[in-house]
Here is the input.
Amino acid sequence: MLRQQLQQKLQQKLSPQQIQLIRLLELPAIELEERVKHELEENPALEEGREPVEDFEGEEGANPENAGDTVEDLSLGDYLTEDDIPDYKLREMSDRTERKEDVPFSVSQSLHEHLLQQLGLRDLTETESKIAEYIIGNIDDDGYLRRDLSAIADDLVFQAGQDVSEKEIEQILYVIHDFEPAGIGARDLQECLLLQLERKEKTPTVTYAIRVLAEYFDDFSRKHYDKILRGLSLDESALKKAIQEITSLNPKPGSSWGGSLESAMNLVIPDFIVEAHNGELTLNMNSRGVPEMRINREYAEMFQDYTANKANQTTEMRDAVQFVKQKLDSAQWFIDAIRQRQETLQRTMEVIILLQHDFFLTGDEANLRPMILKDVAERTGYDISTISRVSNSKYVQTNFGVYPLKYFFSESMQTDSGEEISTREVKKIMKEHIEAEEKRKPLTDEELAGILKQKGYIIARRTVAKYREQMNIPVARLRKEI
Here is the structure.
C-alpha cells in the first residue's frame, strides 16, 4: 500500500569548492606542483603570470533582451580584479628570486632495462629469450621474482602462446641469476643471500656463512645462535665473522637501482622553511612550484564582445559563453583554493612554531612540548580534520634538518613529580639505553620499564612495548648479538 509522508531531515553536503580545497590541503609540495601544471594545461581560462590585467566591464545598458537567461549571473568583476597577485605570494621574503628556476632531473637506466641489456649479450634461442624477457618483466623493484613458476608458465601459454614447462623456466631463471646485481631474480631472501655469497671467494668465513644460510636459515632469522654453534661445531669467533659476512650483503639487490620516475617522486621537498637567527624564528612557505595565476585575457574579451555586441548574441554564441563561464568558474575556484590552502598552511605552521618555539631554536628533542591536533586547531580556529590534512605528508626544513610535520605531534604524560612531558622524551631515553645495552643480553621491556621508573617516568611494560614498536626497534631476542 502506497502512502505519502512528510519528513524533515538535516543533511550536510560539501560544495565542489570545499572538496577541491580539501584535496589540495592533503597534497605535499611536489604533488601540488604537478596539480597546478595539470590545471594550467587542462583549463584554457587559467594562465600563468602576474602582469596586471585590465578590468573589462560591459557598457551600461548593453545587456540584450535575449541574453537575460544565460548571462545574468556573469560578471567580469568576479574574475578580474586589480589585485592579481595572491596574498600568499606577497608574504614571501623580498630577497627571493623572481625568476622561476626549474630544476630538471634525469632518469637513468632502470633495473629492467639493465637486465634486458645483459640478456642481449647471452646466446639464447628466440624461445628462451622470450621466456627470459617475461621473467625479467615479473621481477619487482627489490629485485625478487615473487611469482610462482607455475603461474609464469600459465601466462606464457595464454599470453605468448609458449607451451613451456616449469623446468625450462627454471633453467632460464638460473641464467638470470648470473646477471648483475648479484642476487637478482631470487625467489626469497635465503636464495638472494646465497646467490651473493656464491660469487665471493670461498674463504672459511664465506663457507661457514653459506652453511649457516643453507642449513640453519630459520635459526639464524630467530637468532638462535646456540643451536647454530652446536650444529656446525663452531666457536663464537668463527660464527661472529660468518654473521658479519651475511649482514654485509644486500637483502634488496634491486633497490640500489634508482632513477625511476617513482623514485624521483619520493624525494622529500619541504613545504615550510623555518630559520633561526639570533634567537628569532622566521617562517617561509616553499611556493617555488606554485606560480602566480590569473584569468585568461581572451576569455574576458569574449564576455565583453558578447555583452556589448547584439550581432554576436546568437544561439551558438550563447553556448560558447556558457562553456566560457564554466571554465572561468573553474579557474577562479582553483585560484581561490590555492590561496586559501597557502593561508591555511601558513597559519597552521605559525601556531606549531609558537608551541614548539624552543625546539626550533635548539633542535633538542627534549624541548618538544606535548602537542596534539586539538591544541593547534583551537589556536588556529580550524577544525581538527583540517589540521590533520595539513600535517599529513608535509615537511619543514629547519637549521637542524628536515622533519615531517607529524613529528611535532605527541601525547603527554606526567612524571612522578607531576611534571607534564612529551612522550618523545621518554622514547629518546629508551633509545639511548637500547643503543648502549649489552648486545649479548639485550634489555627486555620489563627492564626498560624499571629503568624509566628510576628516572621518574611511571610507565607500564605494555606501554614500553608500544613505544619500542613505534620506533621500529625489535624485541630483545632479535637484538641479541654474539
